[in-house]
Specification:
Layout lengths: L1 E6 L2 E6 L6 H8 L18 E4 L2 E4 L12 E3 L1 H4 L3 H12 L9 H14 L5 H8 L9 H19 L2
Helix pairs in contact: 3-6, 4-5
Length: 158
């Protein structure tokens, strides 16, 4: 199947079997190493991407879900002001995830802040439910998300 989509602000065209998982295409073929296909059930969160503006777990999506769409991964966020806001918030609240889960946590936080720059703790916990890593204290993480939202609000209102 011939696919065309925007990946991290660049147009990509690839041939892939229609039954292939999006996570495998991103990781194995397109060398997006922040994607860690692990559970293949959409439960661990390590394959999180922003697909057409919405949080998605790429391990449960077939490749054709991306056709003519837009995908943003951790690699596509690293050079943005949003990324700086997120990292600053996490550092300030001592909620820095391990290097394995950091990419997915950043993508998930971006999706949270796209919906609300002042999310409730409940919203944050619900969005992160099922995404687990022993490195993360979820109360610190929630404070880090809130702090990142504060930094983004401050930057947008300068």
């Amino acid at each position: 199947m011939k696919l065309s989509f925007t990946l991290n602000h660049q147009l990509v065209s690839v041939d892939a079997p229609a039954s292939q998982r999006l996570s495998d295409l991103l990781h194995d073929t397109l060398q997006i190493h922040s994607i860690h296909p692990s559970c293949y059930r959409g439960e661990c969160g390590n394959c999180a991407v922003i697909l057409n503006g919405e949080l998605a777990f790429s391990c449960i999506l077939p490749v054709f879900a991306a056709d003519k769409g837009e995908i943003i991964t951790y690699e596509g966020l690293r050079d943005s002001e949003e990324y700086e806001d997120i990292m600053k918030g996490l550092r300030e609240e001592k909620a820095f995830p391990c290097s394995y889960c950091l990419p997915s946590k950043v993508v998930i936080i971006k999706s949270i802040l796209e919906n609300s720059l002042d999310p409730s703790t409940q919203e944050i916990f619900e969005t992160f439910s099922g995404t687990s890593c022993p490195c993360t204290n979820f109360h610190n993480l929630a404070r880090g998300v809130k702090r990142a939202g504060f930094h983004r609000r401050s930057r947008l209102h300068e």
